[in-house]
């Protein structure tokens, strides 16, 4: 069995001070890695991923292009592909993150964007080359009749390419993002829209996080390729849940407890806490979240001094100028709230931008309210993780555009993510909830959030794929 994804379960940094350049291995980030880490050290499974920086490339060189050392991967069998850095940059920053991510999250400001020009076509050629590199590596690695699970929007063409090389394989594709509705998807040039869909339909099975994204995909196939295009591919839905066992164990280690004490000191005694944890990602809607919090302080002065918004916005995709600008805007708005409302004893927004998993878990444990307000999100695991860990039972303010909405809506305060006034009202209601109702809701949220833990999510996909005839 093979898994293929751009980001793998491990990433390396090169410590240039060390003699010979010591390599440090770290766990990869993001929802995809959290879900797939459940594979664990299975001797039959190889995870094929891309080298993402100089540290990764050095690790590949030292491994002679073969499997990475066990000690770095927790026993998981991982093969990293050293794809030409310029090709990778065009495919990842150019096509995957600046085009496909924008299409599926509907992020374009359409009077000026997108512009599909000669530069875009050059990047598209790199996206094809990058997908071919994966298809060839998978074809080489796979035993007769093996199952291959290809992940996400970086690798839409790989299933079709792999099918051509190895008709014996069972190929699955899984999308960790939303899928755009046809009218928006068709912003893409016609030939490229068709190539992406045909590439994915090269899989025996294409699966999604929610029914909504699966329905959008089939609607795109019908609109772009015609109603018969879906006849050879099965569509699946697997709503990835939180890993309660892992989270509870990890969140009770001493490094998390230490960070709870530090956070409590930052928050101040007797105050409510509104927590959010995100990559600093355009689709996460962090700025409108801050504006809603500001509105709350305006509309309900009784919360001043009595609540703190703990916002962790970790660096992401900083090669892209729009992400750097967005990060600056998040800081600016947070500083503005602090200077306008703060007092000597109260900092209304505690913003941290340095990635720290243990501190995220500490914030989850302290949360009274979790704010998850993306403008569009494949699932959003934070919405599922906070209710599992919050000690007092947290209330959830949740965007109706997050995949998690399908499963959590009954016990959340749901909002239109663009409506700052509505979000402010939801924050007020969530903060005002009595302790019993809050605990009850949190219990039901946690149960819904953990209904399909990662190991089962993965096994369900594998089993469904193995039941199909290849091709
Ligand atoms: C989303 C995508 C994943 C991706 C993650 C982190 O969850 O669906 O494929 O790995 O974001 O983004 P990055 O660009 O840092 O890999």
UniProtKB/TrEMBL annotation:
GO cellular component, one term: cytosol
InterPro entries assigned: Glyco_trans_20
Alphabetical GO biological process terms: trehalose biosynthetic process
Pfam short name (any one): Glyco_transf_20
Entry-linked SUPFAM superfamilies: UDP-Glycosyltransferase/glycogen phosphorylase
Residues that span the membrane, as ranges: none
Gene Ontology MF term list: alpha,alpha-trehalose-phosphate synthase (UDP-forming) activity; trehalose-phosphatase activity
PANTHER family registered for this protein in UniProt: BCDNA.GH08860 (PTHR10788:SF106), TREHALOSE-6-PHOSPHATE SYNTHASE (PTHR10788)
Assigned protein family: Belongs to the glycosyltransferase 20 family.
UniProt-recorded name of the protein: Trehalose-6-phosphate synthase
Organism of provenance: Streptomyces monashensis
